[in-house]
Write a structure and sequence with these properties.
Layout: E1 6-10, H1 17-29, E2 37-41, H2 47-54, E3 59-63, H3 80-85, E4 90-93, H4 96-101, H5 106-119, E5 122-127, H6 131-135, H7 139-150, H8 156-159, E6 163-166, H9 180-198, H10 200-205, E7 208-211, H11 216-223, E8 230-233, H12 240-252
């Protein structure tokens, strides 16, 4: 089964409206040839400006979060329909920074996932262990419970729309990347868990991104692993000279 590689840039809480539009303009000007799916996930305030600049291009737009309810009294929140309305096709859910700083639980991620799917967004669902959990030999248990909890109550048709991102927390923003073997081991586990839940043919079609200090120097090695189908890129997605070679590595692998 050949899965189309998917590289997404998670801008987190960075840039300003003008530098965001400039960045995507620069990306468009140097996009490498080759087939891979590409998205950027700006801070939500900048989504309309970025989406306008990217309309009709090869680069899609995603949100970094949503609130899993229909329009109602939820001060400060935005929902999936609003993301779609502003030009998004994707949304990142359950990023470790939201789990850590905003108290997101697997149950909350699951609720958001249902709402993202109902809005027609492609959800990128993040899972990953902390360093303490890895050192305690708990990687498998943590990733399994996050995956089951976050993907609760979806059927295989819905699962086929989901992208999973394996992001070991100890590799995010630290410069310390999982080795291709460490990452592949967990990606294979995730694929097997998806197979148990949704059947092997659905599992074989689901993209599993790796995230955590992906950079030009390690992208090709990671992306050539059999179960690594793309990258969720933080810091390196903010610089054209770093993000373009990562996209090129995905287009070649
Ligand atoms: P990083 O972030 O590439 O800066 O490590 C990845 C992420 O958090 O999605």
């Amino acid at each position: 089964m050949s899965r189309r590689k998917f590289v997404a840039g998670n801008w987190k809480m960075n840039l300003r409206s003008s530098s965001a539009v400039q960045l995507v303009g620069d990306l468009l000007a140097s996009l490498p040839a080759g087939d891979c799916e590409i998205a950027v996930c700006p801070p939500s305030l900048y989504i309309p400006a970025v989406a306008l600049r990217l309309r009709g291009t090869r680069i899609g737009v995603g949100g970094q979060n949503l609130w899993g309810e229909k329009d109602d009294a939820f001060t400060g929140e935005i929902n999936g329909e609003m993301l779609v309305d502003c030009g998004c096709a994707y949304v990142i859910l359950g990023h470790s920074e939201r789990r850590q700083y905003a108290g997101e639980t697997d149950a909350m991620v699951s609720r958001k996932l249902h709402s993202a799917l109902a809005a027609g967004l492609v959800p990128i669902v993040c899972v990953g262990e902390t360093l303490a959990q890895r050192d305690a030999g708990e990687t498998q248990r943590i990733v399994t419970s996050q995956l089951h909890g976050s993907l609760a109550d979806i059927d295989s048709h819905q699962a086929s729309k989901v992208v999973v991102a394996y992001e070991p927390v100890w590799a995010i923003g630290t410069g310390r990347t999982a080795t291709p073997q460490q990452a592949e081991e967990v990606h294979l586990l995730i694929r097997e868990l998806l197979g148990d839940r949704f059947g092997t043919s659905t599992a074989a079609a689901i993209r599993i991104q790796y995230g955590g200090s992906v950079k030009p120097s390690n992208a090709a090695d990671l992306l050539s692993q059999p179960n690594i189908d793309g990258a969720l890129v933080g810091g390196a997605s903010l610089k054209v000279e770093d993000f373009i070679p990562i996209i090129a590595a995905a287009a070649q692998n």
